[in-house]
Amino acid sequence: MLIGSSLKMYFGRARTLEWTRAVAAICAEHPAVRRGLVEPFVIPTFPSIPDVVTVLQETGAADAGMLVGAQDLHWEDAGAFTGEVSAPELAEHGVALAEIGHAERRRMFGETDATVARKVAAALRHGIAPVLCIGEEAAGDHRAAAAACIAQLDASVALAVREGLTGRLVVAYEPVWAIGAPEPAGEEHIRAVAGALRAHAAAGPFDAQVIYGGSAGPGLLPRIADSVDGMFLGRFAHDPAAFGAILDEALALEEDR
């Protein structure tokens, strides 16, 4: 099970490292992580990536399997792209995951299915697993939501499929209407859409997982665990204790089986 958080631009460097040390210490000792039941991850801002990698190594969290991600990447390997960061450079820093296509990137920075597809292919070419964010715009019927999300998924991996790329793909189902909301989407809705995405992704060429994001926090995992491969946490994980509580939930689920 894959469980982690994108810190977006909430924290500066000092707060990022404080949070990471606390969460890494929890993960390094937690039975769910040490037994391989949970693969934890953190996605900080670009400038904090090297320091976060060091913290995970120093605390033993890296040895326990905790991963570091990036919040974006460029689709080219090198060139005159001021302000951008390439997949090869991220790989040099030990980045294993890259968040791609988040609704905020689409809304604020004009990203499209075409640019997302190029970024997905770039990540896979360099051994970085895309954390591909997809989700329907408006609340509604789960069947329509699943159809919209599957279409978005197919468009986002189309270039990688044409190039014959394979590798790990993390599909982060985040209903756009649930991002930043007081509560996540309803559990039946999540289970229906995530289940449809899992079935569809399983037929593709990638080693695919589906995780849920969109106001995800403690208490949700036990209600949706049969339909997802993990959780993509946001602001509800800003308290390291909340991250630990979700690891506790993952452990309890395994022990109840």
UniProtKB/TrEMBL annotation:
GO molecular function: triose-phosphate isomerase activity
Alphabetical UniProt keywords: Cytoplasm, Gluconeogenesis, Glycolysis, Isomerase
Cellular compartments annotated: Cytoplasm
GO biological process, one term: glycerol catabolic process
Origin: domain of life: Bacteria
Enzyme Commission number(s): 5.3.1.1
Main localization, broad class: cytoplasm
Subunit record text: Homodimer.
Record protein name field: Triosephosphate isomerase
